[in-house]
Design goal:
The chain has helices spanning 20-29, 48-55, 73-80, 91-98, 105-112, 125-129, 131-142, 168-179, 214-225, 253-264, 306-313, 330-341, 381-396; strands at residues 6-11, 33-38, 83-89, 117-121, 146-147, 151-154, 160-164, 189-194, 199-200, 206-207, 229-234, 245-249, 269-272, 279-286, 296-302, 319-326, 345-350, 362-363, 366-369, 372-375, 379-380. The strands form six sheets. An eight-stranded mixed sheet has the order 12-11-8-13-16-17-19-20, with helices on both faces. The protein is 33% helix and 25% strand.
Length: 397
């Protein structure tokens, strides 16, 4: 995934430095070239040999180290970087960065680097919340650096609160967001609906469906990774919100409809991957004449058809993509839905196909357009998401 990419890790002098070898290992497994620069104080927590063993590269600590081929090393490394992460970023290190102080190998290289820059603060809660530190972070963001918000929890000093460095998996997610994909959708706006909806029967029970939201979340994540501005309207799911996405959480189909209406006009494309509960209870009672005592009788009405509303209210230039889950006659039923709803593409799949359907990490889909049908092989939902985006913006251009 990161073949040919150079990731520079700047390790500051905090106890959280012990987590960074794990991050370096993760990056190497993705075939990235990993270069590590340590401050002098970082050497009190972890040794350069650890990083050199993991990365296969010399770990830099001294601006005036002569043990390399002659070149201005901090400038050359800054030029090679595709992304530069400082983690842990101490209060002292953040202050230097904010004010352009370059008095060691790490800050000198960071100042010379024009690649995307990430900062992961890690320190005592009081230091992190100090107005001086917060002002310094705002200065960093003003100059285009991205600050990864620290986690809350038990800190090495014994305090509990903000200031804990995120786990390596979170740091990796931020790195991948920056460099894993070309930003070929920069400037595009995409609205995605995902997950199920719930229609309350009473304070305890509700009507819903089996949707996990995985496919819609994969589309939203892929679009954000490729530079699009993404709004994700999500029903109740147990998934982590994708990085860089505006999340609007809803419960019922009515709430989802209102959220879609509110965001619809400004979008270039809409992907409706949500599986709404099609009916909402009008009334609940006990039908004693035909059923035994206590049996429930539901009177239902159909909910608003979000996809049909989108098709009827689209503005020129918008692209609409819906989903179709079928158990038989997949192409015929999906093509009828395409015409009836007035959309540009239907992504169809079948509950009867292995590796497709609700809750899986893979999918087997067929793209239905007015030009024809294209069946894709089985692949992960993340891969399907990128193929969907490729198809949408190829047809839209």
């Amino acid at each position: 995934m990161l073949q040919g990419k150079t990731v520079v890790l700047g390790v500051g002098g905090g106890i959280a430095a012990y987590k960074i070898p794990n991050l370096a290992s993760m990056l190497k497994k993705l075939h990235a070239n990993v270069e590590v620069i340590m401050t002098e104080n970082a050497g009190n927590f972890i040794t350069p040999v650890t990083f050199e063993s993991l990365t296969g590269n010399k770990c830099l600590t001294d601006t005036f180290d002569r043990n390399f081929q002659f070149q201005v090393e901090h400038v050359e490394l800054a030029k090679r970087a595709d992304v530069f992460l400082i983690a842990p970023a101490t209060a002292n290190g953040i202050a230097k960065i904010a004010h352009g102080i370059a008095d060691d190998m790490l800050t000198t290289t960071f100042l010379a680097c024009q690649a995307p820059k990430l900062i992961a603060p890690a320190m005592n809660t009081r230091m992190y919340e100090n107005p001086i530190t917060q002002d310094n972070l705002k200065i960093c963001m003003k100059y285009g650096m991205k600050v990864i918000e620290p986690a809350r929890g038990y800190l090495a000093c014994g305090d509990v609160g903000a200031g804990k460095m995120p786990e390596p998996e979170v740091l990796l997610e931020h790195i991948l967001f920056e460099i894993a994909y070309k930003k070929d959708l920069a400037g595009k706006k995409l609205l995605v609906t995902a997950g199920p909806t719930r229609e309350a029967i009473d304070p305890v029970r509700y009507i819903t469906n089996h949707s996990s939201g995985k496919m819609g979340y994969a589309v939203a994540r892929a679009a954000a990774e490729r530079g699009a501005s993404v709004t994700l309207v999500s029903g109740p799911v147990s998934l982590k919100p994708p990085l860089g996405v505006k999340l609007v959480q809803v419960e019922s189909a009515g709430e989802m409809f209102e959220a879609v209406k509110a965001a619809f006009d400004e979008q270039d494309a809409v992907v409706k991957a949500a599986a709404v509960a099609d009916y909402t209870p009008l009334s609940v009672g006990a039908e004693k004449t035909k059923k035994k005592e206590g049996d429930m009788c539901l009177e239902l009405k159909r909910t608003e058809d979000i996809l049909a509303w989108l098709g009827a209210n689209r503005r020129p230039g918008q692209f609409l993509c819906g989903f179709s889950m079928e158990t038989e006659h997949l192409v015929e039923n999906s093509r009828a839905k395409l015409e009836k709803k007035g959309v540009d593409m239907i992504v169809a799949n079948s509950l009867r196909v292995e590796g497709a359907g609700f809750g899986t990490d893979t999918n087997v889909v067929t793209f239905i357009t007015r030009q024809g049908a294209q069946e894709l092989e089985r692949m992960t939902k993340d891969q399907v998401a990128h193929r969907i985006l490729d198809e949408i913006f190829a047809m839209k251009s």
